[in-house]
Amino acid sequence: MSIHIYRNKKILRLFVLAAFTFVFASCNKDLPDPTPIGYSPANNSATTIGDIISSDPNYSIFKAAALRVGALAKLSDSNKVFTVFLPDNNAFIASGIPSEAVIAALPITSVGGIVNYAIIPGEQLTSANAPQTFPNVQLPTSITIGMLPGTTVPINLSTFPSTRATGFWDNNIPVVTPDLKFKNGVIHIVAGIVAPPSQLLQSALYSNPNLTYFKAAVARADSGQTGLGRFDSLLNYAVTNMTILAPNDAAFQTLIFGLAFQSYLSTRPMPYTAMDTAIAFATGNGAVAAGPVFLSTNNISTAQVRGIIAYHFLATDQGAGFQPNIRVFSVNFSSSPSFATTLVNSSFGPHPGILVNATFTGPFVTNLTFTGLGTFPPGGAPYSGAAATAVSLDNHAVNGVYYVIDKVLLPQ
User: Fold this and answer.
1) Cβ neighbours of residue 206 under 8 Å, at least 6 residues apart?
2) How far apart are CA 304 and CA 2, in angstroms?
3) Residue 44 near residue 78, CB atoms below 8 Å
4) Would you call the peptide bond into 41 cis, given omega within 30 degrees of 0 as the criterion?
5) How many of the other CB atoms lie within 10 Å of CB of 59?
6) CA 214 from chain center: how many Å?
7) DSSP state of 342
8) Could you give the 3-state DSSP secondary structure of residue 269?
9) Rounded Cα gap, residues 359 and 333, in angstroms
10) Judging by DSSP bridges, how do beta strands 242-247 and 400-405 pair with one another?
11) In whole angstroms, what is the distance from residue 112 CA to residue 145 CA?
């Protein structure tokens, strides 16, 4: 059974670059050196960030956390500068931590993650400095995750502030009170804890029990590839900023059923008989029953699977060809339909990308859809197929963010 999805073979001739010139700031904007901030009112110019956290009861839970991990002293140092995305007590409560007693009971590593991911050393970022268009600014936090082989500089987990017409965020968490200026920096009060990522995309995706077909598709797409030409290697590469759309198992099962169903009918003369249709249904159900192994057989080619997977990696062209170098949180997508480019965009020709639409309720995205150019069966008008809905948003990893979607997107 041979299945053909695409008519434009150029789209199938995709290559992930064998080497990337990524540094940890890939794609996202760097900040200039910190400059002294103006104070209005001027009385904040004599108070450090540590002083206000120590004295204001609204920050008592963060104070307990900072004391426990030894971070309060550095925030009181007037010879240093910081940006702090500070959760007040309301933010801790909204995040499920209602008291200092809970902080005392948490593992010290968890408390350290909460505190140090909120602190950006050496920068004074005001809301006016956060970009209103993509890419987001990238700020290394106080969490160090070690060094790459052959380097002497430790890598710090980054956070990604942004502004749009609808608000100001750190990652996908809204800022409720921005630009509180103090002697040694600036505080932005956030609506909830901005949690640090703890896994690489590879581990996060492959451990998800609802993404077994996605894992199998990546393995098939990587056949014959080496190094960072492998999607699997990219997912395990710590110093990238990627955005992945991962179709869930039900999405792949729907596609596989349709492929097998159509493939059988393509061997039968028209008009189809009731027996033809019954056998086509049985063929489709048998293909689904085979599980993810279907994606490793000759029922679908390696090039076809590679084209599909490439279409689920968002990418931008910064002068060296399209690369998966963009970390997009749900709040960074537009509330009106707009296009996002992917790894399908290559030197072989332009592609409009994926059509994305975010629905906001206040500062939060409550619905996010993605529509692919192609339809199944093939031949429909571009972007006329049913949209894929993100059933899980903003899954943050060390090297990117992923969304679980309920349909497989087709690039042609």
Assistant:
1) 215
2) 11
3) no
4) yes
5) 23
6) 16
7) B
8) coil
9) 9
10) parallel
11) 13
Single-letter code of the amino acid located at 293: V
By the 8 A CB rule, do 371 and 350 touch?
no
Are 236 and 200 in contact by the 8 Å Cβ rule? The answer is: yes
User: How far apart (Å, rounded) are the C-alpha atoms in residues 65 and 239?
Assistant: 29
Q: Give me the residue label for tokens 């921005």.
A: 178
3-state secondary structure of 293: helix
Which of the 8 DSSP states describes residue 337? -
Is the Cβ–Cβ distance between 412 and 352 less than 8 Å?
no
Give the Å distances, CA to CA, from 363 to 173, 199, 334, 360.
9, 27, 12, 6
Q: Encoding tokens for residue 369?
A: 């859809």
Report how far apart the first and last C-alpha atoms of the chain are (Å, whole number): 21
Higher per-residue pLDDT: 158 or 13: 158
68: nearest Cα among 15, 104, 95: 104
- Asked if pLDDT for residue 174 goes beyond 50, the answer is yes
Strands of 234-283, DSSP E: 242-247
Half-sphere exposure for 38 (CA within 13 Å, toward CB): 2
Tens of pLDDT, residues 187-200: 999 999 999 999 99
- C-alpha span between 154 and 364 (Å, rounded): 34
Q: Give the pTM.
A: 0.86
Q: What's the token pair of residue 69? A: 């991990």
pLDDT digits (tens, 9 = 90+) for 327-368: 999 999 999 999 999 999 864 557 899 999 999 999 999 999
Report the SS3 class of residue 331: helix
Q: Scanning the structure block, which residue is given the tokens 């600036």?
A: 186
Mean pLDDT to the nearest integer, 297-326? 88
